[in-house]
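Margin note from the TA: students keep mixing up input and output lines. Inputs are the sequences; the output is the structure of the whole complex. Example:
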Amino acid sequence: GAVVSQHPSRVICKSGTSVKIECRSLDFQATTMFWYRQFPKQSLMLMATSNEGSKATYEQGVEKDKFLINHASLTLSTLTVTSAHPEDSSFYICSARGPEPSGGALTFFGPGTRLTVL
Amino acid sequence: GQQVMQIPQYQHVQEGEDFTTYCNSSTTLSNIQWYKQRPGGHPVFLIQLVKSGEVKKQKRLTFQFGEAKKNSSLHITATQTTDVGTYFCASLYNQGGKLIFGQGTELSVKP
């Protein structure tokens, strides 16, 4: 089935620094990718929809200038957490809609990136 | 906007007991998907339901979509320790792939 990768899997950074997370569709092209954030014991909250070649669409309450999304190619979307603070510590997960159902699934998730801001 | 409510938040069962989690929406859903997330892992797709009253089975798991397409349930018969994790329902907001997740039900199984 379709595979989505994320890098890095874990990152620890100091408060005030910026962190870039990459999301790649390995064996298919994804014109649209999605970024979610998940706090401990909570559900996945959609942050934004990443569109190849155009600006991302952010969900209400998500700061565009803080969470920069770049979908530079059909296989890569990046999320940059700028000036990270401890409250940004979370599990960030991307997903992409595959070209065709695989095992019934159409949406494929990356393995996630655990961000810890000290 | 579209919201999916899921209960219970937690469920602790003895191995061999059954487990059910429920999702409800105030609006008609075009579809419902179910995912399982193991601790430290990412959501793994289980199934998608699209038809009114649809029932699908995967071994010990039974998935139902309500007649009005406003509710869904996942039932696990005779739980095993391998069933441990958080089960999420989610609905596809539009054909573009945007998923709205329920709050999830965390299942723990005592051997």
